[in-house]
């Protein structure tokens, strides 16, 4: 090591040596720029001429399909190599079939993305016999929008107020016992004294409006972004009476959150736990083990896509709500759900029985 005395010739010599070293050996930023260029070239080489798949776990026509097709139309131009993107559907079990297939079969190279329910971390914790995956093996690319669920009530329902719902038997439709369409009413029934008769078996959100119109059910918990612009909601035939989420949706400032209707502090925490997926919303993910430069490229492509005026215009025409969240932030929300204390998870499990 060169020892330098304060002042004098020795100090000037040391400075000259240091300056020469900076010229002879490039600084870290230059090396990083070279590495970044190499990584982008590698990503471009991989995706060029390829077809990238977005797998959804629900039938075509719902919000999962809508956001996936918007991504398929607009995301390729922001991915190095500009791959073609197609959407494939593997429905069943409120999205479980698609998630399980993706977890087992999705290639670990970044050639397949998934768009699945915001509740997959909850299912893993509360029903591990069904949620046979580890969400920490997934990496989120980004979320298009949050998905506060709302309890939509038909105009002719026997119960018309929150007080009525605690006194009058109300038929509530749901698709299956692992999705929020069952979990939310089951929790309010267990903790809030709501007189809900939960009827499961509807294939998906596309079937809910007709079930309400026919009077088969009086109430359904489903994502607000699938209801907000429907004619039945605009004309008052259907109206939101309760919502799930950690904060009230900007459109629903006067509609109470589930936790607002519960008195016990522990029960409020359970409601918040079960609602926490709303912030994940409709989000793209990939296997966590894909090459890091491809993960970074897909996250960057998503962030650029959701700012694209053409994408925003198409989303507006399709009545697709946009409230984008970067993948790193969505990842933290998912990780926080997995870190929920076991006693809160157990109370949630008991409420769903």
What's a quick, concise take on this entry?
With 353 residues, the chain is α/β, with parallel strands linked by helices.
Structure description:
The chain has 353 residues and is α/β, with parallel strands linked by helices. The chain has two domains: 47-146 and 280-351, Bordetella uptake gene, domain 1 (D-Maltodextrin-Binding Protein, domain 2); 149-276, D-Maltodextrin-Binding Protein, domain 2. It has 14 helices and eleven strands. It has helices at residues 8-24, 28-47, 63-74, 96-105, 120-126, 162-165, 180-192, 208-213, 231-234, 265-275, 292-305, 309-317, 327-338, 342-351, and strands at 51-56, 84-89, 112-116, 138-145, 149-154, 170-174, 196-200, 219-223, 238-243, 282-287, 325-326. Strands 2-1-3-10-4-11 form a six-stranded mixed sheet, sandwiched between helices. Strands 7-6-8-5-9 form a five-stranded mixed sheet. It is globular and about 65 Å long.
Labels describing this entry:
disordered N terminus; globular; 14 helices; 353 residues; alpha/beta; six-stranded mixed sheet; 17% strand; D-Maltodextrin-Binding Protein, domain 2; five-stranded mixed sheet; 2 domains
């Amino acid at each position: 090591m060169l020892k330098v005395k304060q002042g004098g010739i020795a100090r000037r010599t040391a400075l000259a040596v240091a300056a020469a070293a900076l010229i002879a050996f490039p600084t870290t930023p230059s090396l990083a720029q070279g590495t970044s260029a190499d990584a982008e070239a590698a990503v471009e080489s991989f995706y060029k001429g390829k077809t990238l798949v977005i797998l959804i776990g629900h039938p075509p026509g719902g919000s999962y399909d809508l956001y996936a097709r918007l991504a398929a139309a607009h995301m390729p131009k922001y991915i190095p190599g500009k791959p073609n993107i197609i959407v494939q559907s593997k429905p069943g079990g409120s999205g479980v079939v698609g998630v399980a297939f993706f977890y087992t079969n999705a290639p670990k190279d970044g050639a397949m993305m998934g768009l699945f329910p915001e509740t997959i971390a909850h299912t893993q914790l509360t029903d591990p016999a069904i949620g046979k995956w580890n969400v920490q093996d997934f990496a989120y690319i980004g979320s298009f929008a949050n998905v506060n669920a709302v309890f939509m009530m038909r105009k002719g329902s026997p119960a018309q107020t929150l007080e009525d719902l605690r006194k009058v038997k109300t038929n509530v439709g749901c698709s299956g016992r692992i999705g929020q369409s069952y979990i939310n009413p089951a929790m309010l029934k267990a903790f809030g004294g709501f007189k809900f008769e939960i009827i499961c078996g509807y294939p998906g959100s596309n079937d809910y409006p007709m079930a309400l119109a026919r009077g088969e059910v009086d109430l359904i918990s489903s994502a607000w972004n699938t209801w907000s612009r429907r004619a039945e909601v605009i004309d008052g035939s259907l109206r939101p009476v309760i919502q799930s989420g950690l904060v009230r949706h900007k459109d629903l400032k006067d509609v109470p959150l589930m936790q607002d209707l519960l008195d016990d502090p522990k029960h409020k925490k359970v409601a918040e736990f079960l609602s926490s997926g709303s912030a994940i919303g409709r989000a793209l993910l990939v296997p966590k083990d894909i090459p890091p430069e491809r993960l970074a490229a897909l996250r960057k492509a998503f962030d650029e896509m959701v700012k694209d005026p053409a994408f925003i215009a198409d989303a507006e025409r399709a009545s697709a709500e946009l409230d984008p969240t970067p993948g790193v932030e969505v990842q933290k929300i998912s990780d926080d759900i997995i870190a929920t204390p076991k006693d809160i998870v157990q109370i949630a499990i008991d409420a769903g029985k």
